[in-house]
Amino acid sequence: MHRWLLLAYPRDYRRTRGAEILETVRDVGPAHRRSRMAANLVRHGLRARLGRPASRTVVAWASVFAVVCGLFAASFGTWLAWLGSRPLDHRDLAAVVGQLYPDRQAGHIDQDDPPAVFLIYGHPLGEDLLSELLLGDGGEYALAELTASFDQTPAGGLTDLRKRLDAAGWKRHEPFYANAYDCVPDTPQCDPASIPSDITVYAERGDHILAVELTADGSTNVTLSRATPGTAYPAGLLGFVLGLAGGWVLFGWASRRTEGRRPLVQGPAKILYGVAMVFWAAPILLGAPLMLTHHLDEPHPRWHVPWEWLGQPALSLPFLVGTVLLLLVLGLAALPHRRPAARTLAGASDPGPAL
Amino acid sequence: MREATFLILTALADEPRHGYGIIQDVAGLSGGRVNLLPGTLYAALDRLVVQGLVEPSHEEVVDGRLRRYYRLRADGQAELARQTERLRQLASAAETRLRALRPRTA
């Protein structure tokens, strides 16, 4: 079993030290629990992947990179799961509107199915809209919705709406009240208590999310969208684990490849990595608290998609720049160089069998 | 310096030792309190080798089993002496205060 656990160590390390470590493990074996020994080997094997054994900071840098990779990979996993979700059907919206307001004619109701699960300015993301996504309008990339509206709120208002939602089998949330406008600060003639409210009722049924907004100006808006697909959760978890592991291994490879290199390689590699992490992590540090505040302020029958918590794709340009910088770091690490033979084991004549 | 690192340097002070030999000696030096696991030992040896305090000495194959020995370098001896002096000073200071305390607690 311990031979397998040595896979936590990088290949070069296993080649030079694997046999030696295994012999010591066999000698020590009876004195310790196998699980404790195994955890110890995995922990130090993962640390050995980073190289730079005397460094006090390399573990922190690798952890940041691995966690960020894990978060982005989790987002990618859930995005793929969303792409596999059932497309919205405009006939479902017509049926819902018919159930809620059978005696009213909608002023507007979408008559076509959305062309994709996610849209930007009503269109699927394509080459023509890529520049919009990158240059500041990434926040417009959002889940497709179907909408209907009435110019006047039907009689009965909120009370009838609740009854009809219950009768149609919707699981509804408590109404959410939002001021139609805010008072300008330091204007005593504006009484916040007298500001009219927009009322929104969220409801769920099957894989549908319904939002009915009764606005202060007397109109009603109905929005139908998809609930988070069940596959999104395992896909996100799997993506996180793979991203975390991949990030650690990739960082370790670059760290070992640049270890002991000339300052001309090490210096730029460290600077590029640092700047890239700012471009990758800053949107997360900015976006996540804002999203959390927003999430706590309003009822959410469906969590925002994970990449929005990471500030994406609103800040996709910094992400792209960070990616290019990281590719440059990997390019520097991949530059061929002559490695000192078994640097940490000077004098060792036989490296031992590869494991 | 961590206690385990200090004990590894101490274990190598009198003669070169292989991995298991270091583990046994460290356990003996600490009265069985510090039992190094192989992963911890080799991570510490890597660090000490890079810091120039320890170096591989030679290898032996006994009954088909590889034994790689490590020894203290001159810098390692100097560092061990420095740490020993530091600990001696600390122990001495603590001892002085404890001595001063005894008559009052008696």
TrEMBL record, chain A:
Membrane-crossing segments per the record: 58-82, 232-251, 271-294, 314-335
Q: Which UniProt keywords apply?
A: Membrane, Transmembrane, Transmembrane helix
This protein's source sits in the domain of life called Bacteria
Q: What is this protein called?
A: Uncharacterized protein
Lineage in the entry?
Bacteria, Bacillati, Actinomycetota, Actinomycetes, Micromonosporales
Automatic annotation (TrEMBL), chain B:
Task: State the superkingdom.
Answer: Bacteria
Which part of the chain is the Transcription regulator PadR N-terminal domain?
8-81
Cite the InterPro entries for this sequence: Metal_resp_DNA-bind_regulator, Tscrpt_reg_PadR_N, WH-like_DNA-bd_sf, WH_DNA-bd_sf
> Which Pfam families does the record match to this protein?
PadR
Q: What is this protein called?
A: Helix-turn-helix transcriptional regulator
The scientific name of the source species is Micromonospora tulbaghiae
Classification of source organism: Bacteria, Bacillati, Actinomycetota, Actinomycetes, Micromonosporales
